[in-house]
Amino acid sequence: MTELLKKSETKGLGKSETKNIEAQETKQLELSETRAKKIKHSYNVEDKENALVLKLKDGDVVIKMFPDMAPNHVARIKELVRMGFYNGLKFHRVIEGFMAQTGCPLGTGTGGSGQKLKAEFNTLEHKRGTVSMARAMDPDSADSQFFICFADAPWLNGQYTVWGEVVSGMEYVDMIKKGGGFNGMVHEPDIIVSVDVVADL
């Protein structure tokens, strides 16, 4: 166990080895096992294998997933998360009072991972904090794009696959940069800094 040093004693210490490392490189530094356990515990989720931590510019968002309601979607989302697919992707379409959409590798709303999913429409409602799959006209066209609802959107119920809900950090979702116009496309949009399955932390 390391002892705490007084302020005067720290002056003689050399610079931290990470002092001049680029921000991108520091992301790859491994956490100590103790620190990782503390972080995982702090997210306070019952099922760590079915919970995500979405890091945004303003803070961490914890998403509880529903493998019982949308098993194939949850499995695919976790697969993409573990591949690092979502890291750095833009919130390309964000409509004030409605939702924030992300998950397009092209940043335009026209791309995906190349693996379409059969719809798993369920009885879960679209309400504030709901996480649901975006899709085209074809019900079975969902791929990697998803949206988080800022407010209740009952007209979407039964037409889009709900696979999760925000259980903490919704205030940071509210801070995502909004778009303009009817379609909500965002100029210089915010990004997903990173996303991880809590069990992997």
Labels describing this entry:
alpha+beta, 8 strands, eight-stranded antiparallel sheet, 19% strand, Cyclophilin, disordered N terminus, 18% helix, 201 residues
Overview of the molecule:
The chain has 201 residues and is α+β, with helices and mostly antiparallel strands. It has one domain (32-200): Cyclophilin-like (Cyclophilin), CATH 2.40.100. It is 18% helix and 19% strand. The protein contains 5 helices and 8 strands; from the N terminus they run αααββαβββββαβ. It has helices spanning 7-10, 23-26, 33-42, 71-83, 170-174, and strands at 51-56, 59-65, 93-95, 99-102, 130-133, 146-149, 162-168, 194-197. The protein has an 8-stranded antiparallel β-sheet. A hairpin with a 2-residue loop joins strand 1 and strand 2 (59-65). The radius of gyration is 19 Å and the shape is globular.
Number of β-strand runs: 8
Choose one word for the global shape. globular
CATH architecture assignment: Beta Barrel
What is the CATH superfamily classification? Cyclophilin-like
- Summarize the amount of helix as a percent range: 10-25%
Q: Biggest sheet, strands in spatial order?
A: 3-4-6-5-7-2-1-8
Low-confidence stretches: 1-29
**Distance between the ends:** 23 Å
